[in-house]
């Protein structure tokens, strides 16, 4: 999903061609409430929390296997972000993308500096915050 906060819209990219309406519709109601809840105190009165509209992006017929969807999703997000035409996404490019992702993960797993940094990582402490009830 690509959520546009300026034009209250949600673009849904589903490699499997399914419309998960139940899950997507929950976001259309929830996102405006979250935006309203985190707004500056003086602006809450001015904000009209209206429901987001949903559009399903037409996905071309690609030869996706069950384990390829992640790579396809990354490429669709990349094209959407860069304003590129989705026709650039094809089975050959995505197969190459899967190999690059696998190699990058393998390389990172064998990087001594990264291994050291990860061994010393401590999650940040979170201060208890005010709980906001959404009606």
Description:
With 135 residues, this protein is mainly alpha-helical. It has two domains: 1-59, no CATH class; 61-122, no CATH class. Helix content is 43%, strand content 8%. The chain is built from four helices and three strands; from the N terminus they run ββαβααα. A three-stranded mixed β-sheet has the order 1-2-3, covered by helices on one side. The longest helix is centred in the last third of the chain and has 19 residues, at 91-109. It is flat and about 50 Å long. 4% of the residues are buried. The model has no long low-confidence stretch (mean pLDDT 78).
- What global shape is seen? flat
- Supply the number of structural domains: 2
Count all strands and give the number. Answer: 3
The run of helices and strands is EEHEHHH
- Overall mean pLDDT stands at 78
Number of helices: 4
Radius of gyration: 20 Å
Low-pLDDT residue spans: none
GO molecular function: cysteine-type peptidase activity
GO biological process, one term: proteolysis
Family: Belongs to the peptidase C48 family.
Domain Ubiquitin-like protease family profile: 2-109
């Amino acid at each position: 999903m690509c959520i546009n906060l300026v034009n209250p819209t949600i673009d849904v990219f589903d490699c499997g061609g399914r419309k998960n309406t139940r899950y997507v519709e929950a976001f259309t109601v929830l996102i405006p409430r979250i935006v309203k809840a985190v707004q500056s105190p003086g602006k809450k009165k001015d904000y009209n929390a209206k429901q987001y509209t949903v559009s399903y992006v037409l996905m071309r017929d690609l030869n996706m296997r069950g384990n390829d969807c992640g790579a396809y999703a990354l490429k669709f997000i990349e094209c959407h972000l860069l304003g590129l035409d989705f026709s650039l996404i094809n089975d050959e490019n995505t197969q190459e993308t899967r190999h690059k992702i696998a190699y990058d993960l393998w390389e990172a797993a064998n990087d001594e500096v990264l291994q050291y940094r990860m061994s010393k990582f401590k999650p940040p402490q979170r201060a208890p915050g005010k709980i906001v009830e959404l009606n």
